[in-house]
Every structure is written in structure tokens, then in C-alpha cells.
Amino acid sequence: MNSTRVLFLSLLCLLTSPQAGAEAAAAGQPTGADGFSRTFDDPRYTRLPTYLIEMKDGALLPAELVVPAKTKFRLVVRNVGDKPAEFESNQLRQEKVLFMGAEATLVITPLDAGSYDYFDDFAPAVHGKIVAKAKE
Asked: Does the pTM of the predicted model rise above 0.70?
């Protein structure tokens, strides 16, 4: 049973390839003019504001993501490193294992204003946070 699971996940990893380009550049600029993190522009995700988090061998990019409070949004979590990663947030009740080159999407329900931690469970010393702040 485990070998079948490993084979399936390996094939899934090979078939899933991350997109590079402008969205990676946007990830390097953490906030827009409104004080919130820049959204991730991808034609597949048009109904909800979408944000990108990249995981690279224990590093989390961006380390702080600022989103509007009381707004449903989508996270695209991408592993661009050479090792498997696990996006985890106990406060958000979200957990995803990502093989090298894989990406996952998470829909996050509206958050109250505050700070919500996330980390790579395979490198738990490195933490990031999602800051939900009220619109002015």
C-alpha cells in the first residue's frame, strides 16, 4: 500500500510544474499601495484574491503576508526548493505536504484582524505569519 502511495505521489510531482515569471517577481515585493501584500495574478484564480507563498529548503517567502481581515482568500503554496516541504498552520487548521516543484491551493475563510503563524513542518525553526488587518 505504501509503495503505491509513494508511486502516485512521485508521478503527481512529475506532472505538476510550477509557473515561473512575473508572479515570482511579485512575491519579492511584499506590499502594494494599500498596505496589503500584492496578489498573485493567475488566470486560474479569478474569483478570490490570491496570494503566493514559496517554500525553499526551510525558507518561507514572504515571511510576512498582509491580507485584509474579514475577506475570504486563496493561498497558492509552492515548493521551489530541492527538498520536500510541509506548509502547516495550527491557527488556520491547514496542512499540505509538497514535494519538490509541487504547488497546492488553500482557500482561507475570512479571518479576524490579528496574526496567524505558518511554518514548514520539515524545518520548524523557520516561521512566517499572515497578518490580517482591517481595511481603512
From this structure: no
How many independent structural domains does the chain possess?
A: 1
Helix-, strand-, coil-residue percentages of the chain, each rounded to 5: 15, 45, 45
DSSP type of residue 97: E
Output the domain CATH number for residue 21.
2.60.40.420
Parent domain of 35: 2-133
Rounded distance, CA 124 to CA 73, Å? 25
Q: Supply the pLDDT for residue 75.
A: 92
Of 121, 96, 91, 97, the residue nearest 109 (C-alpha): 91
pLDDT for position 103: 94
Q: Which residues of the chain have pLDDT under 50?
A: 11, 14-29
